[in-house]
Specification:
73% helix; mainly alpha
């Protein structure tokens, strides 16, 4: 599941960035057509109507992958709870890839709940962190390759189009990095990591029949929730640090005037934002014992929160409602220009702490499955 999620998120992120940037770089113009994102909006269907050629390409690609999946699952030996050989196992057998494979797969460390949780999710942190690190580095050189007059043209974009990239001013370097890294890429990659951790924190242990083992040790339900939440905080901060480091290196490579302080502040606020997503996933996991409800429920909230932040502010009649979205406290204070907004940071922290605290009584009152 980690490999499937990681590859899908990587393709999605690379496709989005390629479709957004390649048309503005003379040497790369036209190559955006290799990405699915191009066929989603390249014909501007909201203005021009349905482009059946693009629909055929997307539908055909989906059919091809479905057929390949069908053939693959029929040719593959299915896994059981007994002995199994996976790709990770084969990579472990090769001395040149053993260390990386071990890190991605995690190890059966059960010396403590915290270490077990770290081991369970370290692969996802490596995958999402690598996506953010290399994507952030690439943004600096990409920005430098685009002519200045192209960026200046973004200042005249209609408000609705600007809203689609989080309302940021793409005519400036700070606006470019905010739109390409912090509006979509970091929240999506971080949400994948945090939702996975939050959903599996309680419901995943029940599904895997390991919760009974945890509770048979001298460990209360409240301590289980607190330990899981603590590891989530550590992973979110590590994810933010990786993003900040990659962005800073990209800025240096592109010769862009942007200080490390504002980059660190924005990355920290991004960590707090995705922690809030994880907190909600943890609450739903503890309250329902269902990973699917936790995952999809939180994913729906992430989508609603983003679109509320992006579009409610366009209309003066709904502008005040933007404050209900956690994205407002992430980017509303323009941290990539103004630096850390401590009031916003406290709000984002509360958005994580409150559902985490509610998860404790929700878990204590529920009969466990299995």
């Amino acid at each position: 599941p980690q490999a499937a999620s990681g590859v899908a998120v990587t393709v999605m992120m690379v496709g989005y960035l390629g479709t957004s940037i390649f048309p503005f770089i003379e040497q790369l113009d036209g190559w955006e057509k290799i990405f699915p994102w191009y066929y989603l909006n390249g014909s501007m269907p909201a203005l021009n109507g349905i482009d059946w050629e693009h629909i055929a390409i997307l539908g055909g690609a989906s059919l091809v992958f479905a057929v390949l999946g069908f053939v693959g699952v029929n040719r593959r030996d299915l896994r059981s709870k007994g002995t199994k050989r996976t790709m990770i196992d084969r990579l472990r057998d090769n001395p040149r890839t053993a260390v990386v494979a071990e890190k991605i797969a995690g190890s059966a460390r059960v010396s403590g709940l915290a270490m077990k949780t770290v081991s369970d999710h370290q692969g996802m942190l490596i995958i999402t962190g690598a996506i953010m690190f290399y994507t952030s580095i690439l943004m600096g050189p990409m920005y430098a390759l685009v002519p200045e007059e192209t960026w200046a043209a973004f200042a005249n974009f209609p408000d609705v189009l600007v809203a689609m990239i989080g309302g940021t001013d793409m005519s400036t370097a700070a606006g470019f990095f905010q739109a390409e890294i912090f509006v979509i890429t970091m929240p999506i990659a971080g949400a994948v990591l945090m939702i996975s951790m939050g959903s599996r924190a309680i419901a995943g242990e029940e599904r895997d029949h390991t919760m009974g083992l945890l509770l048979s040790s001298p460990m209360s339900r409240s301590k289980i929730v607190a330990t899981k939440a603590g590891v989530m905080v550590g992973f979110a901060l590590a994810f933010g640090f990786i993003t900040a480091l990659g962005t800073w290196l990209g800025v240096l490579m592109g010769g862009i005037d942007m200080g490390i302080g504002v980059i660190a502040a924005t990355s920290l606020l991004g960590s707090l934002l995705v922690m809030g997503f994880g907190g909600l996933a943890l609450l739903l996991s503890a309250a329902t014992g269902e990973t699917s409800i936790s995952s999809w429920g939180t994913t729906a909230w992430v989508a609603v929160a983003y679109f509320a932040f992006a579009f409610l502010g366009v209309n003066p009649d709904t502008e005040a409602w933007v404050q209900l979205s956690p994205y407002h406290y992430f980017l509303g204070g323009d941290p990539l220009v103004e630096g850390m907004q401590w009031g916003d940071a406290l709000v984002l922290l509360a958005i994580f702490v409150v559902p985490t605290l509610l998860a404790i009584p929700a878990f204590q009152r529920r009969d466990l499955k299995g």
